[in-house]
Amino acid sequence: MPEYRTHRLAVALFLTVLAILALGCSTKEDPDEVLALCGNHSCGQLVMVTIDTSSSGYQYLEPALSPDGTRIAFTADWRVIPSLDEDQYQEPFESRQILILPVPPDIWSESMVYREPVQEIEQLGAQLIRLAEFNHIVGGSPIPVTTAHRIDKSGPVWLDNDHLLFVARFGRRDRILVADITNPAVATAQVVFYEPDDLAETGGWIYYHKDPALSPDGRWLAFTRFGCDAEPNAPDVYCAPTELWVLDMQTTSDPTQVTAFQLTSGAMILKDPTWSPDGSVICFAATSDLVGQYTNAITELFRIRFDAEEAELGAVTVDHQLRRLTTTNVADGDPIVGLANYAPTFDLTGGQIYFVSTRRTPASTQRVRSIWRIPSDGRLEPSILFYSRRDDIDPFVNRADGSLLLSSGMGFPTEMLDALEQATIDSLRAANADPDIPIPLTEIEILRRAQTARDELEFFEGVMSHLYMFRRF
After folding, report:
1. Three-class SS string for 296-363?
2. Of the candidates 470, 326, 461, 324, which has an alpha carbon nearest to the alpha carbon of residue 396?
3. CATH superfamily name and code, 40-411
4. pTM
5. Mind listing the pLDDT tens digit for each residue in 229-259?
6. Mean pLDDT of 260-275
């Protein structure tokens, strides 16, 4: 009888574990779910980098810090800084442009809290990168891109302090460009890599290159790639799944002869590759069809091993040590779309991966975009890193001090609003002390005007996406 009871208990325990797994629960160790808040953001030192009030809707996204730490490249709406020839066109442009913004040299000083907002981002020293005309090969022939300054741009990556890599959309293709930005007003650019089909006179496929990510040593450029059948008489257009590729930057002097390799199988969505600090691992976001599972458009984090020696020999292994890092559990009432984990980036040690997720935050039932972290081997469930109760996206780790550069819709931080409101009060009280003022303001009127000034700045919460730098206490 005791043996039978023991056996029955073991079977019951086994079935319970199976039931838990069937429901999608993870057997990973749970992290600390305590979410400490300071003001309107997670505990740490927060600096608002773009303090302009340029409009009621501009979005500053995809920030990347220059290698010397003095400038930020990021994408912005067209009208933030007008183009040279905007008066020639009546219709508004929807394309994104790339701006360069100097980083204040005393970024972490107390004075950053008391900075007065400005009306235009140009007052902060921002410059628009305007591309000079360049040639693009289509059908084997060079075609001039005469309105290069107007084409849609995304994903800026610093090659060095004077050159940027980014994605540009033109000629029904997305291509990675490298631009010399020594003079941002007349930046010279060229395509990094052409497909063999780009050189064909007729037919072939149209390929799209996105999400450039440069290895720490600058030798390898990871990017995502997919193609669509471009046969002119084809009844239907077929597009292949997206794959992760890598190219050798030492072979890009002739963009038609670049050495490039496929690194992963294809997936419905695959994006945002990032390198570990030692260049041995690439993490990215993809739908689970990458590993042969059903996908409902939820993106998860995956990682692969990159062997530079194999790449130099041209013998890269596809899906080398492919590993899934996150699993998103869908609860009753969750939306069918919009659940995602993406935009990963490694911390300074390579032991943690920061990423954007719409998973539920602790102490909240909201599914807003926030910045999370997970051990780079995926042994723990994700835990919150930065949470402002607004959209927090596009994390970029400063390799000098480990601080985080990000874009957020949080608006002007509470501490900054408090300081500016108090500064307004102090200024009005000081003006009241002037004996030449015939009718001094009452204390109630002083407080009302200070509150009005604060309200005008609070308007930008959830309206503009600004750039911030954050470091944890």
Report:
1. CCCEEEEEEECCHHHHHHCCCCCCCCCEECCCCCCCCCCCCCCCEEEEEEECCCCCEEEEEECCCCCC
2. 470
3. TolB, C-terminal domain (2.120.10.30)
4. 0.88
5. 866 566 677 889 999 999 999 999 999 999 9
6. 97
